[in-house]
Structures are given as C-alpha cells and as structure tokens.
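User: Predict the full complex structure for these chains.
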Amino acid sequence: MLETIWFALWGVLWAVYFMLDGFDLGLGTLRPFLARNQDESRVVLNAMGPFWDGNEVWLLTAGGVTFAAFPGTYAVMFSSLYTPLMLLLFALILRGISFEFRGKEDAAWWRKTWDACMWIGSFLPALLLGVAFANIFAGIPIDGEGVFHGNLFTLLNPYGLLGGVLFVLLFTVHGALWLAIKSEGQLRDRAGAAAKILWGPLLIIAVTFLAMTRYTTRLWQNVLAKPVLLVLPLLAVAGLVLTRVFAGKGSWWKAWFASSATIVGATLFGVAGLYPALLPSSLAPAFSKTAFNSASTPLTLKIMLGVALVMVPVVIVYQAWVYRRFSDPVTAEELAGDHAY
Amino acid sequence: MNVLTLSRLQFAVATYFHFLFVPLTLGLSIVVAILETMYVRSGDVDYKRAAQFWGKLFLINFAIGIVTGITLEFQFGTNWSRYSAFVGDIFGALLAIEATVAFFLESTFVAVWFFGWNKLSPKAHAVTIWLVAIASNVSAFWILVANAWMQHPVGFVVRNGRAELTDFFAIITQRFALLEFVHTVGSAYILSGFFVVGISAWHLLRKHEVAFFKKSFRLGIAFALVFSLFEILQGHMNAELLGAAQPTKLAAMESHWETGRAVPLNLIQWPDTANERNSVQTLPVPKLLSLLATYDPNAEVKGLRDFPKQDRPPVLPSFLSFRIMVGLGFVFVALTAWAWFKRDSIEHSPVFLKVLVWSIPLPYIAIQTGWTLAEVGRQPWIVYGLMRTSDAVSPLAVSQVAVSALAFILVYGLLGIADFYLLFKYARKGPAPVAA
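Assistant: Here is the predicted structure of the two-chain assembly.
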C-alpha cells in the first residue's frame, strides 16, 4: 500500500515538474523565433523570471523521491541513463546561469553567448526528457544485476525520438501560451499565433505517439485492465482539444490550463500504465525495477509520507501565491528598472 | 584511469566547485536580511542601498551554488549506484527532505526577493530575504546530517543486503551531525564576514562612499570576529569527537603513527608514509594530543600502525589540510580582533585595509581544506566502517565517465571564471547612487 502511494506521488511529482518547468523550457526554445528585438527578448526572459527556479526544484524533488522511496530504481535508472542525464544536467546548468548572467555585461558577444546557452539549455532538456520517458515506457535493456546493456544510441530508437519530439511540441505550445499571458501587443499576438500553429504538428505527433504506444509498450493493456484509469488519457485528449478551442478565443489563461491538463494527463497515463514498474526491463519482466522490489523500508516510506503530506501542500500554497502575485504582463516600466533580467 | 578513479575525480570537482559558492550564500543571505531589516526599521536609505548592493553579489554567487547542487544529488545515482542502492533508505530520504522543506522555499523566494522590490510592501519584502536565509541554512542542516551519516552511521541495521533505517531521530540528532552543522555554518559566516570586510576595505582605500562602506565594514567585522572565535572553540569539540568516532582520521590528520599514552603534539612535523613514521618531528607540546583527543592528558591515542594498511586514509593530504585549516583559523582570530579594535578609524590604516582585501581568499582555502580533511580522511570508506568507496561505484564504461569528468572540468572552469569576473566587476562598481 505504502509502495503504491509513493508510486502515485512519484508520478505526480514528474507531472507537476513537466507542467511548470515545461513552459520555461518551451519558451526558452521559442524565444529566438518570437522575440524580434532586445526588449521583446527581455520580456520573454522576465515572463519566466519569478518562476523558473522554483519550478526546477520539482525536478530535484522528483529525483530525490526516486532516491528516497525507490533507491533500487534510482540506482539503476540514473546509472543506465548516464549520458542523457549528464547532458540534461549540463543543459539545465547553462539555462539557469544564462538568466542570471546575460544582462550583467553590455557586450554583444556576451549576450549572444548566453542566448545560445539558454536555447540549448531549454531545447535539449525538453528533448531528452521526452526520449528518456518514452524509453522508460517501452523498457530498457537492464539485466538482473541492474547493468544496462546499451548506450546512448540504444535510446535513440524511433519511439524514443518520437517521445522527444512530442515533449518539445507540448512544451513549446505550453510556453507560447504562457508568453501570451505575460506579454502585450505584437509579442502577445505572435505568441498566441505560435501556439495555434504548433498545435497542428502537436496533434499529429500525439496521435502517432499514442498509436505507437499501443504496439511498443504495455501501457494500454495495463490501463485497460483498470478502466477507471482511462480518465487519464481522456484528460490529456480533452485538454489538447480545449487548448485549441480556448487559444482560438484568445482566452490564454484557460488555454494554458487546458495545456497543463494535457501534460499532466499524458504523464500520469504513462506512469499509471507502467505500474507497478518504474523502470521495465526489455530483456525480461523479472529484471524490471518495480515499486515493490526496489522500495525503501516501510519506516522510511512512512516518515517520508509524513513530510510530504505536510510540506507539499505548503509548497503549493506559497508557489500559487507567487504565481498570483506575478501574473500580470511584464511592463516596459519593470524592464527599465533595476529589478528585472 | 578506471571508472572508480574517474568518478572520484568527477565528484571531487563537482563538490569542491559547489562549495566555493555555498558558504557565501549561507552567510551573505543573513547579512542582506539584517541590512534590509535595518532599512525597514530605521528608514535609512543607505541600508536599502547596502541590501541591494550586497544582494546583487549574493545573487551572482547564488546562481552557481544552486545549479551545481542539482548535479550533486543526481551524481549519487549516476556514478555511485551501488552506494545509492545500499544507503538509499536513509541517505536518499535525507536528501528528499532537504528538497521539500528547504530547497523549494529558498528557490521560490529568492526570485520573489529579486523581482518584488516594487511589488511587495517593504516589510513583506524583508520577510522574503529572511525566508531565503533561513531556508538555505536549513538546507545545509539536512545535507550535513546526510554527510554526517556517511562519517558516522547510526540508527540503522544491515538487512536484505542494505542499510535499513531503524531510528530516524538518532540520525538527525547524533552529535556528529550537530557538530558538523555548526562547524560548517560557522565557517560560512566567517567567509561571508571576510567577504564583506574585504570589499568594504577595497572601497575605503579609495575613499569611495566612506560612510556607506564603514557601516558594511562594522557589520562584516562583527560577524567575522564572533564566528572566528566560535569556530576555534567549537572546532576543538570536533577533534575530541573524531577520537571516538573516526580514530583513523584523527591519527592521519595528526600524522600519529605509534599508539601511546600522554601523546605530545608536535608543532612541526612531516609524514613519511612509506616508512610509517614522521621524517621531521620537533617542538613537541607535552600531552597535548591526548588532551585534545580525549580531554585526558594521559589517555591513549591509537596510532596509524595499529590499523591495517587497507583501512588507513591518505596521510599527507589529511595532515596538510588539517594544519592549513587550523592555522588559518588562528589567523582569522588575530585579523578580526585587530580590525575590530580599529573599526572606528579603519579608513586611516591603508596597509591594514590592503591586508583585509587580500584576506578574502583565506576562508575559502580554510573551508576547502576542511572538506578535504573530512572526505579524504574518511577514506577508504564511503560510509565509515560500513562500505568501501571502491564497492560503491556504478557499472559504467570508462569512456562515459572520462567524457563527463572532462566536461565537468571544462564547463565548471568556464562558469567559475565568468562568475568571479562578475563578482569582481559588481563589487568594484559599488552601490547605486542615491536616488535624486
């Protein structure tokens, strides 16, 4: 029971991370295409400014919970995905530093360097997270000792790559909608248009991915075995449709929430379909790392659950407060002041 | 080089680098919070300018500390998977708690502080920097509890091929953890004090914003003096603790080979590891080592020769890092006491001001050597007495770790250069002019 609760929480942490940092990663990817001058470029940065750091901690927590609740999975998953994880970490380092350093020096080469770093630091994590999760859904070649029999190219299979493209599209639509909320005038128009344009390819890739999921993974069988779980893929599909509907009306907040529902629904569908495995082995089902064969002791799971039940709601409350407080569009006045990126 | 050596190299690079930035975060956040509180209470705009000036340096420093912390947490899984599987039940939980109770708070409110100057009331704004300061210090507590468990594991039983938790309270309240925590934050406050004092001294030398920087100087020197004194007295408790908890580390850091009673402490000595003795050994202070290690001048202190060779840490690095750390600790007391007595007329002592500017790196060196002692002195164990470092590493290919280790050195090197460049630039620039 404790293992199942933690398995669900593990999925929720990833879903929240994708929902929150997803718009940062998407916006960082889109910025060179949306911003036509310095001021617009800075509006994009400051649209993420008060949030990205707090958003990234959800990743750290998802990683930390994997370590704490399922150390057996943490050990095998993180060492098996060594190269993509290292790339992800370096990319996120570059992204974080770019925010802080970019405006601290006037030279054009300085700014361009950090702009390039931020693009890589946004695009690459979106892609890698998609590739990683698609491979986790499908299973990776790990043996009974938890040794990975493959390399980076093992992961770059068609289904993995499609997962990467799916994440990039999900996050860019999500990011464009966020920018439409946080900007005004031409930039907002361009952001809204980008969300609508990218929605088409997203739909195609999402349908293809779901179809391939049917043949490449066991997610559908597992979810169909417990029909109540069908609400998760339905949430994702409804979110996707509503994203386009609300974007068409220019209701950016509603469209962003619909897009959030897509991301959360899709992630939870994947995680629910994995249950009880966190990391299936493609070599033999017995080698899979599951919520039961890789969990911590009941004592640790109980203590951690106590901490989570108290602290996670507190985190949600203060982060929601920050989102409310900084929900207005970025103004020229703020950019002119000393307290903006 | 094999996977073990490369992984150790990579982890050393990542932790040394991370901890170049963390101590200043721990202390400077408190300095900024105090300055902003003084502004809110007095309305003196100089304090607001001071909070913003030191706050800018705080943020430049903070950025690197944060992003390099994430790689550390993930490296346990990537490079030390056997360790992770063995200790996850305890060590993983401590890291996860750190993220939930502290890291979220710190990361969320540091942004609110930076972006919120005109969006929050002055009082609410001052609260946000206090939240950042408290959260970063709470964060340090959990991380150091985790490290202390590697140094001195308690509250567990080895079962099912791993260390399983039996007593959570024992882990978070063990003496080793509490002493490690106060010693580490104490050193961070010394470093932050020297940072503020040194930069203020640089401006005072140039007669730039004299009134402004004298205020910062006074706050910085009070910080540095109090914690320099604290650190010496408290540090002694750590030596006594090591005598009981980590006898091999104590013997290595003192380069003490022969078990004996009423052991003297040699002021000058040099270890000769190959021959298991000291090649130089002079100026003994009678019975001092016994006294420091046990509070009893006649007590027995075990020497390195009494431990099997495969259980001994590298002697020279442990010995040297300990001596450098302690030596610098005494230098800090002398410097800060002198500066404290001269604080009212400090701007008239240019030579001393120069000394203070050049003293900024010293606490950095003391802290890095302190961690060298803590971690190298723990070898060959990753968890003292329980798991060897050589048994902890992931089953990886040499090429993978070679490439990533090289990437760490290159990327961190460049980031470090850029960060120190910006710190220099904005430290020299001084505070924003008073608004008209």
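The beta strands of chain B are 156-159, 162-165, 260-261, 265-272, 277-285, 300-301, 381-383, 387-388.
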